[in-house]
Amino acid sequence: MASSTDTPAQPDRPPRPNTAFRQVRGRRSPAEFAALVRRAAREIGERVSCDARYVGRVEAGEIRCPNYAYERVFLHMFPGRTLADLGFAPRSAVRGRGARPAAP
Length: 104
Fold this sequence. Notes:
The protein is mostly helical. Helices cover about 45% and strands about 0% of the residues. It has a domain at about 20-90.
């Protein structure tokens, strides 16, 4: 089962809603959009367990960057768009890799 790359909200920085992702969902309900995500995943041989709750967490900003399986699915669903276009933060910003000093 694919999980999300998310971090707990920091007390001084509440999650920012992902309005770009909400826009690409359009008039579909979160459950309808989740079904489209699962269908797209099957098309490219990925296994994700997307549901309305996951879509809501992305839109609420709780999931700032999808895991690699969801990344492949979203890029398949929206050719020509980047994760940034879909409102996601860079993976390095979410996991803090950019802030770590180089090993001696």
